[in-house]
Amino acid sequence: MPKRSASLIERAATVYDFAAHPRARVPVELLKADRDSVPPVESAGRGVSTSLDTNGVGLDPNGVGKVHTLHSAAPVAPTAVSAHAEPIAPAPLPFVSSVVETPRAPSPTVPESFSPHPGNARVEAIDRARLAQKGMIVPGAPIGSLAEEYRLVKRQLLLTAEKLAGARARTILVGSAKPGDGKTYSAVNLALSLAAERDVEVLLVDADFAKPDVMAELGLDEGPGLLDALADHAIDPEALVVRTDVPHLSLLPVGAKTHSDTELLASRRTAEVVERLLAADPRRIILFDSPPALAASPASVLASQVGQVMLVVRADRTTESDVRRAVGLLDGCEHIHLVLNAVSFVAGGDRFGSYYGQGD
Judging by beta carbons within 10 Å of its beta carbon (0-12, 13-18, 19+), is residue 316 exposed, middle or buried? Predict the structure, then answer.
């Protein structure tokens, strides 16, 4: 039987030599199916980093309506990359590039069958037109390339969650190394994609205390939230959850700002709040939109409270050093995934957009 050649993910792992980082003790996984046997093409566009441009799903954090993604043939099962894996000799990393236009869908109506959770009268209407304007997933709109990208991402997160034990399996932190890498854009789209699942309830928590943006991205006002529940043991965090008119999607705002946000997160109260939110619905998955790991300390503290971390890596600005340092700070979580963002490729080849009949 011929010896199997190194997969795309295995070869890409050599680019991020996490074993060389003294704190990189956790397994780091690339949220992308391995695809082989594709002829290489020349990259074009915005100065894509050669150390990053083939390692994950390309998403646009600026909401301009385009998603830059890696596609190729013969998808196989995703491969986990260990921080201590045996180094593999570098080899050319083939890829096919594409630029897909996200459709501007009209705002769909709320399904008549939808009813909010009983006992909580606060139900907010998410601004679908704003989501479409920013190039995000629009609930109820026709499936397009962006929705398909997040289907791939969420499926691997859900598969990992099934393998984890305990309630922490239902918690995911979405973060980045530095500001501007697209972590809030990714957190919102991931939440909207997960909410489309039949057997899942999603709670998106804004945990970016210095610069909260989740509610604004969805066209909603801020209100009492996570920091209030952490500061006051008498507050039931479930009472602060905001139900939305998107079935299976709820939100928890950041709450009143404080200079002690990191200390509050590091207290025992955080575990109590998370446990209460998980116990409120056995189908609930909690997503935390975290501050950038290299810009604010709460990210590393929150990482120790969750089952998985999805680290958004921006191809045209995040350096290998940034990724290594971020992984080191987030190593309180044993399962860290990388999602490559803002990849620029030349147009051409098969892609989700062409399959769904979208033009360039």
Answer: middle
Strand order across the 336-341 sheet: 80-81, 28-30, 336-341, 308-314, 171-176, 284-289, 201-206, 249-252, 242-244, 123-124
Cβ-proximal residues to 34 (8 Å cutoff; 6+ apart), any chain: 7, 8, 9, 10, 75, 76, 77, 78, 79
Residues in Cβ contact with 259 at an 8 Å cutoff, skipping those fewer than 6 apart: none
Helices (H), the chain: 8-15, 128-133, 145-163, 183-195, 214-217, 226-231, 261-265, 268-279, 298-303, 320-329, 352-355
- CA–CA distance, 278 with 238 (Å, rounded to integer): 9
Tens-place pLDDT, residues 33-69: 333 333 333 333 332 222 232 233 344 444 333 333 3
Kindly tell me the burial class for residue 243, based on how many C-beta atoms sit within 10 Å of its own C-beta (0-12, 13-18, 19 or more): middle
Checking if the pLDDT of 323 tops 50, the result is yes
For 308-344, the DSSP string reads EEEEEEETTT--HHHHHHHHHHTTTSS-EEEEEES--
CA–CA gap between residue 348 and residue 62 (Å, rounded): 23
Q: Identify the H or E element spanning 90.
A: none
Residue-wise burial string across 106-131, b where 16 or more C-beta atoms lie within 10 A, e elsewhere: ebeebeeeeeeeeeeeeebebbbebb
User: DSSP state, 112?
Assistant: T
Which residue pairs, CB below 8 angstroms and at least 24 apart, start in 269-274? 269/229, 269/230, 269/233, 270/230, 270/302, 270/305, 271/305, 272/233, 273/226, 273/229, 273/230, 273/237, 274/167, 274/171, 274/305
As a whole number of Å, the end-to-end CA separation of the chain is: 43
**CA distances from residue 177 to 87, 211, 304, 339 in whole angstroms, order as listed:** 24, 15, 16, 12
The band of 76, judged by pLDDT with boundaries at 50, 70 and 90, is: very low
Task: Read off the tokens for 78.
Answer: 């995703």
